[in-house]
Amino acid sequence: MLIAVVSGFVFSLAVPLLHRTVRNVTDWLVVLLPFSLFIYFSFLTQPIAAGGVLSSSHAWAPSVGVNLSFVLDGLSLLFAILISGIGALVFLYSSGYFKGHSGLGRFYAYLLIFMASMLGLVLSDNVIALFIFWELTSLSSYLLIGFDHERSSARSAARQALLVTSVGGLALLAGLLLLGEAGGSFELSQLLREREAIRSHRFYVPIVVLIMVAAFTKSAQFPFHFWLPNAMEAPAPVSTYLHSATMVKAGIYLLARLSPVLGGARIWQGTIVVVGAITMLIGACLAIKETDIKRILAYSTVSILGVLTFLLGLGTRAAVEAAVAYLFIHALYKAGLFLVAGIIDHETGIRDVTRLSGLARIMPVTALAAAVAGLSMAGLPPLFGFIGKELLYTATLQAPLANSILTAAVLLTSALLVAVAGIVSLGPFIGRTMTLSEKHGGVPLTMTAGPVVLAGLGLLIGLLPNLVAGRIVSSAVGAVLAQPAAIKLALLHGLTVQLGLSGLTFALGVTAYLRRDALRRAVSRFDLGTALGPAKGYSLTLDGMTALARLQTRILQSGHLHIYLFIILAVTVGLVGSWLVRYYGLMRLEGWADIRFYEFLTALVIVAATIVIVRASSRLFSVVALGVVGYSMGIIYIIFGAPDLAMTQFSIDTLTVILLLLVLYRLPRYARYSTTLERLRDAAIALAVGVLVTGLTLAATAVPPISQISSYFAENSYLLAKGRNVVNVILVDFRAFDTLGEITVLAVAAIGVYSLMKLRGNGSDG
Amino acid sequence: MQTVMAFVVGALYAAGLYLMMRRSIFKLIIGLALLSHGSNLFLFLMGYLTRGGPPITPPEAVRPVAPFADPLPQALILTAIVIGFGVQAFAVVLIRRAHETLGTDDLDKMQSTDVD
Q1: What's the pLDDT tens digit per position in A428-486?
Q2: Is A678 exposed, middle or buried (0-12, 13-18, 19+ CB in 10 A)?
Q3: Nearest-CA neighbor of A694 among B45, B9, B16?
Q4: Alpha-carbon distance A629 to A710, whole Å?
Q5: Least CB-CB distance to A749: which of B13, B56, B86?
Q6: Is B24 in CB contact (< 8 Å) with chain A?
Q7: In chain B, pLDDT over 70 holds for what percent of residues?
Q8: In order of start, what are the domains of chain B with their CATH numbers?
């Protein structure tokens, strides 16, 4: 299984290069990879259906509990088959859709990364690995939505999708870490065994909330649903693959995967059912409102994702059965319809359903595929969609709570989706034949293959439901319920309530379709989404953040040295000062008796000279006073046993004064630039720092001296290094490398000084 | 005496920083010099003041005769003085050059290296 996941990543690295050199072969190679994966997973359906579970584990970072461990059970298998199977069709479709496009190699690479990440996500047993693959799907989705990066709308849609899903990603990481903490393991199979401990753990509620945020953002649930329609900026193959068939179902997968561990509690069930139901209704209504064929499909996807969410929230056996079947059905017909929408867009350049008509004569095969997929979406026999609808009604009728309300909500949603199915799969193909501006050469076979295969499968499974019921659906349901399940699907159950509801749905749907224009106007009138909706909230948040960043930059990065210094000093005084007062209180000053007159005088001279410097009105004066400070420092060094320092200080100070005097006459008159208020402000903060440093010095020297290093140097300077002056021995022997570094710094400074003095620009830059 | 010197350190810091916050580049340099004096003195105090007794081994002994001053801060300060001078020399020359090029000694006006 590691190979199945990693091969996509490896291949994605090679594809751009391959595409540049052997273009035609690459088109087939990229189809071959998902197709062989599809065959591989198909062969695994038999052992999995027999109750087996495949697992493999590879150490990645075992010290922190992160392993590349994969487990293939019924649920993973269902997703893996969808990912690889639809993947193969989408790659095939892309080669026709992007024929001659220079970025096709890049496109293949992104799509392969996505496929591999998605496989990794559904196969991972380790939750940290699952999180990493989850984020990788978000990233590849970003790259794919923004594939046409020269359009600004594509860029902003890509950014929106990334930001919304990465908020969910962060929530997921936090939730999974807490889950690992509560369950004592990062492996899902272990966590399943610890479910009792997790449910009674104090982190249970935070875990549930965080996991739900992650699932709702990824699967475009209310109030995060707005990113999915905007993601329709992506090319049609991407919308098909990521935004209807696989990636948006990652959130559903997460809920399904964790429901045996977390499910059952009221907070889990209640929230998920309510959010799912709201999303289902909102999605269906907004789908009616739109006229852009891809956005209609996107909103209907949102609606179906809502259906899946609320079914998983219910968590009953019937609901899970319906959810798994519906997930499968939806992937088949919706992927087919997205591919059809791509064909229409590709051939006519029009996506507005009110302007499309009569295309059946121009593209008969596509029209047929669209019709079959549309019938499945509308839930008519003998298609797979019909079976799904029956299961859906069974689930709501048997729901443990509010079954009449839920059934009514599902009825309304389904009726609206019947109308939507008509709008997208019937409307564009019937009626007066459009006149296309360019001569049309027929849809390439690579592009029609996808819709035809997907629609055909929908029909085939509808006729022979037990082709998948035993092998795929049963084991997936078993994995979600964490107990074996044997499911029989049948097209007709005789005259049941469900059949009646299906008939009613269809009748309502057809009525809605016939009155679609009036309905569209009515929905638009009640639409508050654009003014008050979450999308508005998103853009306000984004603008607010940019404004805050700009404001903060303007205040903190003003370009004035004195403001930088002021901020640094104020923060230092605030933080260090408060700490000092807290730990030492107000210090008592000691040691006044131990003062000799000449020492005190020298200290006084330093302070006096410093004051002179600050108040000096001429440069010469301040330079001389600086010299006085330096020489007094030298005297202090002599008094307190540091003759080397004194010598150095005297010579350096002499040099400094000479240097400053040399520069002096070149500069303009000593000017006062700041106002009195500024001076007072700076003086206050400077004095505060002075007090702080004094306090620090006193605090640091309040403890008795213990320095083993110093005594070591004193002991050994003669014995080991044969030198009598300990300071010199430290510099040239014990710490010789430091001195070497110091000399290097001086050399660099000297080179800098020399070049600034001698080298001149040639006039143009002064 | 330690206490008195602690106040001297504070005074040197306060004056140095105050001058560094002025807009004249010359004051910036002087401030920098005062600040390095302050830092050196701070380091020196960390070794505790010892009158007389430089850390030098007399000719007949194998180690300095106690009490002697702590040699470690002295070694550090020696380095700091020299490095400080290097920095100062570079800053002085840089500032002179900046003044020649830009024609101002007001730091607030030195916001761009472009000459127009």
Answers
A1: 888 888 776 655 667 788 888 889 998 998 888 888 888 787 778 888 888 888 887 77
A2: middle
A3: B9
A4: 28
A5: B86
A6: yes
A7: 95
A8: 2-50+67-109 (1.10.287.3510)
pLDDT of residue A765: 43
**A619 token code pair:** 């440069």
Query: Which residues in chain A (423-482) have CB-CB distances under 8 A to chain B?
Result: none
Q: Which secondary-structure segment (H or E) carries A57?
A: strand A54-61
Strand extents, DSSP E, A457-592? none
Dist. CA B32–CA B37, nearest whole Å: 9
Residue of A78, A79, A172, A182 whose CA lies nearest to A132: A172
| 3-state helix/strand/coil string of A173-194 | HHHHHHHHHHHCCCEHHHHHHC
- List, for residues A584-628, the tens digit of each pLDDT value: 776 667 666 678 888 899 999 999 999 999 988 888 888 899 999
- B17 in contact with A, Cβ within 8 Å: yes
pLDDT digits (tens, 9 = 90+) for B25-69: 888 889 999 999 999 999 999 888 888 788 888 888 888 887 888
Closest CA to A672 of B32, B96, B10, B24: B24
Among A596, A669, A681, A697, the residue to mutate for chain B (most B Cβ within 10 A): A697
SS3 category, A65 = coil
Distance CA A731, CA A153 (A): 65
- Closest-CA distance, A758 to chain B, in angstroms, reads 10
Contacts 24+ apart (CB under 8 A), A484-487: A484/A51, A485/A317, A485/A321, A487/A321
> Is B70's CB within 8 Å of A707's CB?
yes
Q: Which residues, including other chains, have CB under 8 Å from residue B106's CB and lie 6 or more apart?
A: A671, A673, B23, B24, B25
Q: Do A663 and B5 touch (CB under 8 A)?
A: no
State the nearest Cα–Cα gap between A446 and chain B, in angstroms: 59
ipTM at complex level: 0.92
CA A554 to the chain's CA centroid: 28
Q: Tokens standing for A78?
A: 């269902």
Rg (CA), chain B: 20
For residue A713, which residues of chain B lie inside 8 Å, CB to CB? Answer: 71-72
* Nearest C-alpha neighbor of A566 from the set A693, A672, A670, A678: A678
CB B80 within 8 A of CB B44: no
Nearest to A306 by CA among A347, A339, A265, A273: A273
What's the rounded Cα separation, in Å, for the pair A167 and B78?
54
Is 0.90 surpassed by the pTM of this model? no
Question: CB distance from B65 to chain A under 8 Å?
Answer: no
- The pair of structure tokens assigned to A721 is 């290094």
DSSP one-letter string for A200-239:
TSTTHHHHHHHHHHHHHHHTT-TTSTTHHHHGGGS-HHHH
Cβ contact (<8 Å) for A726 and B56?
Answer: yes
Q: Does A567 touch chain B if contact means CB atoms closer than 8 Å?
A: no
Q: What integer pLDDT is reported at residue B23 of this predicted model?
A: 83
Please list the residue range(s) of chain A that carry CATH number 1.20.120. Answer: 567-707
Nearest alpha carbon to residue A7 among A28, A43, A34, A26: A34
> Token digits for A311?
């079914």
Going by DSSP bridges, is the β-strand pair A54-61/A66-72 parallel, antiparallel, or unpaired? antiparallel
Among B13, B37, B101, the residue with its CB nearest the CB of A633 is B37
Angle (CA) A653 A659 A664, round 5°? 125
Distance of alpha carbon B20 from alpha carbon B91, whole angstroms: 13
The CATH architecture to which A567-707 belongs is Up-down Bundle (1.20)
Does residue A725 belong to the interface with chain B, where contact is any CB pair within 8 Å? yes
**A725 pairs with which residues across the strands?**
B56
